[in-house]
Design a protein that fits this description.
The longest helix has about 50 residues. With about 500 residues, this protein is an all-alpha fold. A two-stranded antiparallel ribbon has the order 1-2.
Length: about 500
Amino acid sequence: MYFGQFVEQLFMLMAPEALGVLVVSTVMGVVFGALPGLTATLVVALLSSVTFGLPTEISMVALIGAYVGAIYGPSHSAILLGIPGTSAGAATALDGHPLAMQGYGGQTIATATIASAIGTVVGILAMLLVIPVLVQLALKFTSFEFFLLALFGVLICGSLTSPDMPAKGWIAGVLGLLVSTIGMETIQGFQRFTFEIPELAGGIDVVPVILGGFALPQIIRVLRDKHDREYAKLSTVRPYWQKLRQGWKGIARSGLIGVGIGSIPGVGEDVAAWTSYDTAKKLSKEPESFGKGNIQGVIAAETANNACIGGAIIPVLTLGIPGSPPAAMLLGAMWLHGVRPGPMLSFAFPNFIPHIAATLFLAALVMPVCGLLMARVTVHILRIPTGILMPLVAMFSVLGSFALGLNVFNIYLMFLFGVLVYILEEMGYPVAPMVIGVILGQMADVSLRRGLLVSDGSLLPFFTRPVALVLVLLIVLSFSLQSKVMLRLRDWLWRLLRRKP
């Protein structure tokens, strides 16, 4: 359905202005991703405020380029330093850093770069194939389905981001849902939880929440924790082409894992990378070599976390539900530009989905070129003292919050939310479900009350509508899977499948 428009958008993006913006934003993303303490969510949030006054098409080019570059960027610090800036990068560091310390840093970075590009392309193919089908399904959704979908996204995000104690993830998600109710109620027009503060009447803006939730806690932790950086020497920057060819089945598997996990609301690249790495280790003929310098571990993690980009954008465009924290910020940027993702997006903006897919494809081509050329440059960038780097990040976060409407109150909101998130994270509560709750809260709130108004307060549509019933069952299943009985059953089934005949 979208392939013809996809090719047309590719030729339109070949304009010098669009290519220049894509290259600059991708490089910026790689730098942000490579520096420990900076994340893809942060760079997309900062660029959302910077590109607010630009045309929508150019803004999306900048944001997608930064997104792709920042998901790949942590591989540099993970391999060269063994200090990843993200959890996804930690999976790469397990085998990447030992290889670098053995003198294969250049080859490992180059291989990770190619694997990341392949993963991004897999995500694009999934977008073009799945989105038309999902749009047709979403057109049949009513308010009940959208409420259940938002609730399921928050719950599943809480379960997967806090596997040791899912209740903490659920509590964080519910707290985000509560925060989203602050401001003017949209159906009957009265103010809720504003405490007579005029600035809260318009609700909570997404950009200050994300900057406060992801930037400030990370800044505090980086300045608090001192790491002894052991730099690996960078050898010839050349991929292990033979290893890539031999591991094509693993690459395909990792790409599918990344797309699948990315499409789950709110989960993101971290879970995709670790799941893919764990699967590659369990299916390997030499599982004992993982963690000691097995290049297949690097390939699995990097393929999955970049394939997750396309997977995370699928629910953003079709349902208006982010598949990861960076995708949540991308959704916020679309709202700022007047684009309302969802089932009607293809009718309101016919070329928008092909434009996003074409931008991702070009970013997948630009990213490996920039990554390979920057491999030696990042060695010097990584030597920037954190005492200089983190205050700069704090300054840009403040500017990014203020630039949204030139509102000083957003700066106060960012600091307040940042301190709150830092305290909660120190107590073991994850930030991702909270942010997803803030973003999906309005949709859940409005959809539930609109549905109840239409049904005269009856809850029967939750069980009489097929899609709604499926979502109810998925929510019940997500709760039951966290029980000790189900966890033991899962481990038993895995051992049974691994048993040799």
